[in-house]
Amino acid sequence: MGIFNDINAILGVAVAGLTLFGFFQNKMTNNERRLTILEEKNNQQDREFAEVKNILDNHDQQMKVLIQMTEQIKNLSEKIEKIDKKLEKVK
């Protein structure tokens, strides 16, 4: 009878240990899955961020070009006005 009690105790501990191992293994697998999903979302957001940054950089360059063109148009307008005034004086 003593040996059966020892075997029952060992089996009880083994079953409890395997149950805990299975529980924590399942939790670890779920956490790993969540971590993988979060990493992929982070990578996707990084790609979107880089894309938006590129769009904003291009927009800044376009605005600089527009400002330069506006300045050139102003200068040309002033020159045309001067030419018109000179032509009026000649007439």
Explain what the structure shows.
- The structure is a single chain.
- The protein has one helix and no strands.
- It has 91 residues and is mainly alpha-helical.
- The chain is rod-shaped.
- The mean pLDDT is 93.
The outline comes out as rod-shaped
Main sheet makeup: none
Global structural class: mainly alpha
Helix-residue proportion? over 70%
- Spatial separation of the terminal alpha carbons: 133 Å
Strand content is under 5%
Determine the number of helices (DSSP H or I, runs of at least 4 residues). 1
Q: List segments where confidence is low: pLDDT < 50 over at least 5 consecutive residues.
A: none
Number of strands: 0
Average of per-residue pLDDT values: 93
Radius of gyration from CA coordinates: 39 Å
Q: What's the SSE pattern? A: H
Topology:
Elements: H1 2-90
Quick recap:
Residues 28-86 form a coiled coil. This protein is mostly helical. It contains one helix and no strands.
Notable features of this structure?
91 residues, mainly alpha, rod-shaped, coiled coil
